[in-house]
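agent> step 3/5: call structure_predict on target 'NADPH2:quinone reductase' (Actinomycetospora succinea).
agent> reason: downstream docking stage needs a structural representation; sequence fetched in step 2, passing through unchanged.
tool.input:
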Amino acid sequence: MKAALYRHTGPAAEVLSVVDVETPEPGPGEVRVRITASGINPTDWKTRTGLTGQEPDTFQIPHQDGVGVIDAIGEGVDATRVGQRVWLFLAAFGNRYGTAAEYSVVHADLAVPLPDDAPDELGACLGVPAVTAAHCLLVRGAGREALRDTTVLVAGGAGAVGHYAIELAKHAGARVVTTVSSEEKGELARAAGADLVVNYREPGLIERVQAFTDQVDRVVEVALGANLELDLAVSGAGTVIAVYANEPDDPVIPTRRLMVANTAISYVLLYGVPRVELADAVSWTADAAAAGALSPLPVTRYALDDIVAAHEAVEQGAVGKVILTP
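tool.output (status=ok):
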């Protein structure tokens, strides 16, 4: 099969190549997926550069997310899954066969059925961003039903996780306020269903959010240090701030203010989420997709041969989702 891979970490142009490798066979409990589109996340290029401290033992085909059709199964997998259209997540986690190839082999639980009428663009956009958003909304909570009539603050509503946090929260019946950095990104957040969109680069941010709500029940946070003053200004008893991204410098945590407010911070890294909690987030994402409640981000397409340019685009902060089509 044709695949993009790297044998050691470093800059995209220096380590990524597109080669022919042997098509993998699924082992017990695994499925093989013929990939029709591969989505690129920030963790994909960060792992490839070596920022996560992971070096390939022989080679690594990158990318955690993708969409395709199951064409082979391993022992113990239901035979009816052959021919099933699926979206993938965490495909390259502990596995050299990520989705930047014509085929990927993953554990059957990581291949989730995709509705027949959903476009490939949606399947390629889901995965890590949507499941992360779902877990941020569920962590320390009482389930998706408990989100009805609550208020959710989503930082960075035009990003991949932010986009799905808005759509999932709205699907659950919550009110959503979100922050963005430009009018272009504001349009994306409004299209996702946000009730209030505020440009955090403009004055009066805290006052505008406080005019919308006295207290939020949950914050889906991409930059805790930068946004802590806003988060604390609209937090109170029972608020959960779910942080899913790190920053160059660790923020100073105002323990007393959080304690007085009875507000909790939860840190979310999908790769270490307990299996039961991960399954809840995946199930909710799948149900929302089946209900038509989730939409793809604006997509920029690259051919597999152009993976270097695709990685560089994501590194430079491309808006929306960059995907490869093998």
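agent> step 4/5: record observation. The longest strand covers residues 30-39.
agent> proceeding.
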